[in-house]
What does this fold into?
Amino acid sequence: MAEPVPPERSISDHGIIGDRATAALVSHDAAIDFLCWPHFDSPTIFAELLDPSGGVFTLRPDLPGARRIQSYIPDTNILVTRWLCTEGSAEVLDVLVPRDGPGGGPTRLIRRAAATRGRVTFHLLCRPRPDYGRETPAAGAGERSVTFQSSTLGPLRLSGHASLSAGEGEATAEFTLEAGQTVAFLLDGADPAPDAQALDVLIEMATEHWRKWSARSSYRGRWRETVMRSALVLKLMTSRDHHSMIAAPTFGLPESLGEGRNWDYRATWIRDASFTVYAFIRLGYIEEASNFMNWVENRLADCDSDGQVQIMYRLNGGKDFPESELDHMAGFQGSRPVRIGNDASGQVQLDIYGELMDSLYLKNKYGRAISYESWRNVERMIGYVVKHWRDPDHGIWEVRGEPRHFLHSRLMCWVALDRAIRLADKRSLPAPIAEWGKVRKEIYESIHGEFWNAEAGHFVQCSDNTEVDASLLLMPLVRFIGATDPRWVATLDVIEKRLTDGSLVWRYRGDDGLAGSEGSFTACSFWYVECLARAGRLEEARMKFERILGYGNHLGLFAEELSPRGDALGNFPQALTHLALISAAYYLDRELADGRVETWKA
It folds into this structure.
């Protein structure tokens, strides 16, 4: 069989499937070109997206010039890729079979080909390259199966209901189907292969699994389909074993082509905690919010004796996430180096205490009361904030230069004290309320004194400059300042002038200690929309919200960033972006339902 030449795919040319143990990217031409196996943070077995020799799994019909359409089965994470042309039509269904609970079963990938019109020939190529593409496994053919033997991974088997041939580290197949016929393939461990009917049953079970979960949502707003796609993505990226959520299922996808800004996001950032809890609660998923917060509270219990918390953790709570480079990989469109691990895990970022405390407050407001042990850990953590809120740090954007005094870090220290005081009062918990209240007031005064630049007439990113930063958009969202306060309105105006292009919002414009530049940050666009809505500019907010939704891909998925021409950049899909989307949609829905819409002219 002639081997197809790999096309150059963009980041946005992909859908995602997952079983809450790992996730795969499926390209618009039905190639699985990124998959860590068997866990989110395991080495890849398919990584052609990052290197031509990184491994790939293709299954496609021989329909030259066909139009391709990709969509999810409604309310599921099951992806269907269709080809349509005059000669015939066909589709490939992709699913990673979901299982709930720790040890919920092996990772199982099912790919089912179907001819839907005419007589269609399909070609299959499964070329796993374990250990980030550094190993070529031995391939041995069995009865309608090929088993790959890997020294780093163990056995991996592809079985199916068509004849498979084994080559050098690969399996191939060619088969022809009449309209209405299907052939399914299963990639898993070396267990006995199920028959065709059993695979159809697994697909039906997976469909029911996701639809039952979607049906639990309480969201009934005008952007239901968009919001539920974001919710399904977030659920997919939530570990079934640990209930933690990865920031993104990928590594090495560049924030800017060829400039070295390529990071590993296969870990859980404490910063995402409050956004995660808020989003799940707003959609009615209280159990998911509580489970995630149980994981967060365990990290709080593991923190240093002085109350210091690490900014990110492995999915299982491990603290080690050393950064290294995969020198053998060419990188996405030549963007090197390809990094795994993340040295930012060792940075001091004071804002995480506010996000962590805000998430604890939300959990207690909508879920179970905080335990004795967790409250003692909170006291220890707040003690750290009381001692260190004046310290410089690396900030929310994890700049790799010298530590500085960032407004956002100071703001979130205020949030940490504010939410701790509120929680202690609400639950009648023992705490040094007077001391905490004094420090909260000091932080409040320091923000208005050190970060309000009277000459420039706006809040500033750092106490030593006059720049603005998109993280300032969180000031009214965390209720530090009123959304119509003159100081905030003036700051919002400056952010619009310096950091926005329509609905696109850049994080900052200044030097961040790294070579090159980056794209606009999509989560900030949704924060911007929410700020406009809270300021009463609802029609403008709605218009910009609809515009930024247009930058999502054909499936409604968002990468971390967008290039100046609107192309997806960075790891994909990114949890923080989808969390911010849900928050903005929820608030807009609420305000628009109240009829508070003014006339706005572009």
Notes: The radius of gyration is 25 Å. The first strand starts at residue 14 and ends at 18. The chain has two domains: 14-192, 224-593.
